[in-house]
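S1.2 Input.
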Amino acid sequence: MPPTASACLFIFMCVCCVEECVCFPNGSVAFSCGNMMPFHPPFSPSTSNPPFTLTTSSATYTPGGVITVTVEGVKNSSTEFQGFLLQARSRQGNALLWPVGKFSNIDTSLFTALACQNMENSTVSQASGAKRKKVQLTWEAPRNSDYGDIYFSATLVQDYTTFWVQLNSSSLRLDSSGNSAAGIISSSALLFINLLSLSAYC
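S1.3 Output.
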């Protein structure tokens, strides 16, 4: 094959690959797990205030607990989004830990679950390019409490040229008091049993 023909074929294949990857609205965004950046050349993330909010059903979370996460347009706004990427993260000192926990009860007709960092259902995207004003998902906290306070981060795509990257929620404080209380109760019960055993010998 002549060099010119080979070059044309190579360029054609590259264009096909780009078209397959840039379609952020189709849910195929596993390559964006870390920086949460959609591949929309030559456009960059918008620096304007996003017309969306990212909120949670609680300001705290417990190990193994469940949180409802909502992404929606700001009040009185008609703005819709056709693509999104959502995951929980934790920042401890200078270290950024991601993803944290997993999403559950995922409607696969609407959403695509991703295994970022080989963690199943740790990140969620859309299953199609259908426009929407609101998304609500259920997140399960990890059963260990090594992550400390966490927050949710989302990328929202309004259209190919307009998108916002890493829109963050307020931090959720780790509440492990339930586990501590359970530990105290267990210790007290064990002490009571030991006292009964001692009394049997008196």
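S1.4 Remarks. The CA atoms of residues 4 and 10 lie 10 Å apart.
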